[in-house]
Amino acid sequence: MHYAPGSEPCPLPYSPFKACTVPRPIGWLSTISKSGIPNLAPYSQWQNLTFDPPMVMFAANQYSDGRRKHTVINAEETGWFVWNMCTYDLREAMNQSAVEWPEGDDEFLRAGVTAAPCIDAPGPRVAESPAHFECRYLSTHRLRGNSGHGWVDVVFGEVVRIHVADHVLTPDGKLDYAKIRPLARVGYHDYTSFAETFTMPIPGATGAAAAGLEGKA
Fold first, then answer.
1. Tens-digit pLDDT profile for residues 49-89
2. Nearest residue to 30 (alpha-carbon basis) of 154, 128, 172, 148
3. Rounded to whole angstroms, how far apart are CA atoms 99 and 19?
4. Euclidean distance between CA atoms 32 and 36, whole angstroms
5. What is the assigned CATH class of domain 23-168?
6. Beta strand pairing status for 38-43 and 46-51?
7. Which stretches of 38-176 are DSSP H helices?
C-alpha cells in the first residue's frame, strides 16, 4: 500500500500518518491571556529541539474557520508557555482539557486539576503533574495547509526553568518512569503509557560524548 497525500486518496479508512509517528509525547500546555484568563490544552505535536540551552517546539493546527489556538495567541502576547508532564493518572484531566470550552471558562477547573504558580512564567502550571518546563516564547513559524484546518503554527520556546517532583526521582537522581507512567499519543483515539525501559549505550561512546548521550548535567 502506498499513496501520495494531498494528490491521491488514502486507500485506508484512516490516515496512517499520525498512526506511524508514534509514540508522541503530549505537550500539555498551560498559558495565560493578557487579560488574566488561564488556558490548558494538550498537543500531540510537541518535542524537544536541543539541550544547550534546552529548547522545545509545538505545532498547533488552526480551527477550520481560521481561528488560531489560544495557546499560540497567549504565548505570543505574554512571551511564555508552560509544559506539564501528563501521566496515566492524569489521562482523564488531559482529555477534558482538549474540549473547546466557552470563551473565559477556567479550563483548570473544567479539567479538575489545581493551578499552581510558576516562578518565572506569569501563568499557572498543573500542580498534580510530576514535571514542568517554564518556557520563554521565541518565535512562531506559520505553515500553509491544504485546507483551513491544515494551517499550522509551529511555536518555539526556550526552557528557562525545570520542575521535577522529588517523589518521582530514583536514589541516583533519575526520573522513575515506573512511578510516573508517562502518557503518549499514538494513532486514532489511542494512547499509551509505559513503566518498563531498557538501557542500551552506544558502542564506543566514551567521555563527554557518552555523558552527553546519557544526559549527565
1. 999 999 999 999 998 888 999 999 999 999 999 999 999 99
2. 128
3. 22
4. 6
5. mainly beta
6. unpaired
7. 70-78, 91-97, 107-111
CA distances from 131 to 134, 147, 169, 170, 175 (A): 10, 36, 11, 14, 10
Sign of CA dihedral 43, 36, 33, 157: negative
Cell numbers 526520573: residue: 175
DSSP calls for 149-215:
GG-EEEEEEEEEEEEE-GGGB-TTS-B-HHHH-BEEE-STT-EEE-------PPTT--HHHHHHHHT
What does the pLDDT look like over 133-183, one tens digit per residue? 999 999 999 999 888 788 999 999 999 999 999 999 999 999 999 999 999
And the C-alpha cell for 170? 530514583
Cα 84–chain centre separation: 7
* DSSP code of residue 45: S
Q: Is 89 helix (H, G, I), strand (E, B) or coil?
A: helix
Euclidean distance between CA atoms 161 and 98, whole angstroms = 25
| CA nearest neighbour of 83 among 123, 118, 135 | 135
b/e burial code for range 41-78 (CB count within 10 A of at least 16 → b): bbbbbbeeeeeeeebbbbbbbbeeeeebbbbbbbbbeb
